[in-house]
Amino acid sequence: MLTRNIRTITQICGFFLGLSLILFPLLTHAITVQDVPNPQQQYGGWVSDMANILSNETENQLNQMISELEATTGAELAVVTMPTTAPSPNPKAFTTELFNHWGIGKAGTDNGVLFLMAVEERRVEVETGYGVEGVLPDAKVGTILRTQVTPRFREGDFEGGILAGTQGLIEAIAADPPPLTPEIEPETMPMNWTPLLFVGGGALAAVAGGTAYQKSRRIFIEPTGRSRSTKLFQNPRRLYCNQCKHPLKPLEYSEINSHLTPPERVAQQLGSVQFKGVFCATCHPEPSIGDVHILSYKTQLSNVTHCPTCQELTVTRQVSQIVKQPTWNQTGKQWIAEDCHCCDRHEELLETIPCLEPPSNAVFLEPTGRSRVQDQRNFMGPREGDRPAHCLLCRYPLEKIQGYPLQSLLTKPETTAQTLGSVKFIGWKCANCYPESGNHPLHIRGYIENSAILECAICQELTVTRTEQVIQEPTTSSSGRQEIRDRCHCCGNESTQSIILPALPPPPPVYSSSSQSSSSTSSTDTTIATLWETSNDSSSNDSSSYTSDDISSYSSSDSSSYSSSDSSDFGGGESGGGGAGEDW
To answer: In this structure, how many other beta carbons lie within 10 angstroms of the beta carbon of residue 102?
Structure first.
């Protein structure tokens, strides 16, 4: 008897052990770049909607836009939506890793862009390849996100934001498309393969692969001259001489100043341009003036402009006098003083000041009338009633009116609805269109807070509550009856309707206790025995039989179709982390 009890306990432990081995992967699986379906491999497209927020029409529109871009410029653009990028340290790291995992962009030209949105982190990232950094610098990418994407995201318009952001990136690339052919020249230097003949096949392949990788990262430029390029200035890839094919050496910071022109020195002092110098030690062992290549990078100083005389960013702009202040619907005027710090050029310009801009989440309302909107909170942010309001006619901000001044303007049904909590009313006053004091016209806006309260056909307001009562319970042999009563708390109108409740389904057949007990025991013993055998097999073959592949297979029913292999149908481009991101 004791032996049998021990055997039973052992079988039960084996059952729970097998069950834990099955369920544990489900709890520990996290999203990685390998889990994101590659749209090029899946269906030859450019969009991977992991967050499931895009309609079929929007996906088709995005694929068509990007396909036209790729056909005309050769650039590749992928759009990805993610519910979350965890456990990656941040969305930026996940975006860079996914970009290089897929190899977005053509090999050698690196003309790829990845537009990724993470819903839980409320973050949007744009990753750019090396080849498009010149046409899509970080500042331009950030401007596109701030002006065209995140304002729409804050309003819950995900599809509109993704379409607008994609269109902005496409227009920037199409306006100045990157070169279709690599600017990297092939390496023609002979290579001594003799030492490699004694190396094993695996090591030989690794060395050859590493050499090819280093070649693909070389950029060849002339040993002398000047270049203003973000890619050349900030790119970590090494620069090589276009004549002798040897690597260029950097100039010491203290030596650069002697190779700059006077306007360049002024621009460097103003901070509008940064300079670096490289030289070829083979072609010019002791470089003098003119024997170096000066690399420059334009910073983002908004008050420094180009001087037509000095041909450099040496002109500062300052407001000397405001003639007319701008308003919400009228532009202003101001005098701008432009002074060149190199050639002493001075000029006064009268410029227009643009109108004041309402907040990105503002709602525009007529100065009078009534309107209604749903006010339920969603995961995108504040309630509808908390958004700033502006006048649709004059664009001026509207003043929020609540409490007693508003109550006198509400109708009886509106007051009843507000008392029931179905609708909250806010008055919006435009002091610009109606500057007179007193009870001047308002825009009364109703914010629906409880849609469970019904609308009265007489009062035309949400003032009706509903009660349901079962008059007769249904049975297996007869139907039942339920009474529904609607009552308006404003006009007192009541209506009652009776509905038939269908009969209950017959009970399942009842088996004898001995048969049921025998069947249940047999089924339980079979299940425990099967799992115990599985547990014993896994123990005898080492518990590593539950591998990461098994974990992935349990993590999603679509894992076979969504798993991404190492090979990619993108062009094989790469990125070093360029681009920008924004929160919303």
So the answer is: 27
